[in-house]
């Protein structure tokens, strides 16, 4: 009798924990609706809470629909968890990942219950469904770690894998245990109490883990926004100066300014100007080496840090970039837009801000000489001489 009370208490504890967690997740979703999967996880917890409540009310004389609904809700909760993790990873809303496993379980479990299958087999069937869905959800959490290496993915996946192992153990003991000839209570198998306790702990762990994944993604997003130009998706001035502190000789700096940009805005509007900036950013990514860093410095001005190059090589890179810009033809609502750029070049002198100022002086020299050309600090020195 004490075992029954313990199990009943654990079912009620599962209900309370899942319900509280669902409330937390709905609150989180209301503030972060742009993060996919959060609402789905909240729905999964709500389904799990309802399933646990119905299981706590179950007796040996409970009507079949109540038994079927209670177990199906629990399986639906884990299927929704799997779907939510996939949505978190891919952004796709694919209901079939929740609907198909739930419907399949509902049909098989109903058939087994109506046909009089032993209780231990039905327990094993429920445990198998939860084990498979927990395994799939855990694998889905880890699978995306390469493309999005969130540290919180590891404990979240671990909690799901532990749940899977607990369910597998319960399957083994359920099938080994002889069902009672005249069962007076559904709480008969020896692993039920410990399994429910593990379930409660894992639900808390994996729910907190998913919440940490959400917050970790948001933190990375906001950190990226602080260092990235929104229009061109290039690093911004702040990021460039931070990276410049780690620049080592030999290196060079390019200051790049799109020529007559105010005219572009007057002729094509700000939308046309924005397209020109994006087109240049895409070209710069293609033309510069992977080791180089190009950033939007401000307005129509860009800055590039060229690592491990001497000045002659840096000039060749700058000329290739200048020629590429001159060849661009940007379509603005059916009208071709062509732009050129002036580039100033300076050899790294040990201080990135000082080098940028020198490259900026060379840039102004290029603009004064007619634009669409590359000038270096050496060119300034020879002119002064």
**Helix proportion:** 55-70%
Number of distinct helices = 12
Strand content: 5-15%
Q: Averaging pLDDT over every residue, what do you get?
A: 88
pLDDT under 50 segments (min length 5)? 1-5, 183-187
Distance between the termini: 102 Å
Strands ordered across the widest β-sheet: 2-3-1-6-7
What structural category do the secondary elements indicate?
alpha+beta
The total beta strand count reads 7
Write down the Rg.
32 Å
Order of helices and strands: HHHHHHHHEHEEHEEEHEH
The general outline is: elongated
Major sheet summary line: 5 strands, mixed
Describe the structure.
The protein has twelve helices and seven strands. By secondary structure, the chain is of the alpha+beta class.
Annotate the secondary structure layout:
Layout: H1 2-31, H2 38-57, H3 64-90, H4 96-114, H5 119-143, H6 153-176, H7 192-227, H8 237-244, E1 251-258, H9 261-287, E2 293-298, E3 301-307, H10 311-326, E4 330-332, E5 335-337, E6 341-347, H11 352-368, E7 374-376, H12 377-384
Parallel strand pairs: 6-7
Antiparallel strand pairs: 1-3, 1-6, 2-3, 4-5
Structure in a nutshell:
With 385 residues, the protein is of the alpha+beta class.
What are its keywords?
single chain; 385 residues; alpha+beta; five-stranded mixed sheet; two-stranded antiparallel ribbon; 12 helices; 10% strand; elongated; disordered N terminus
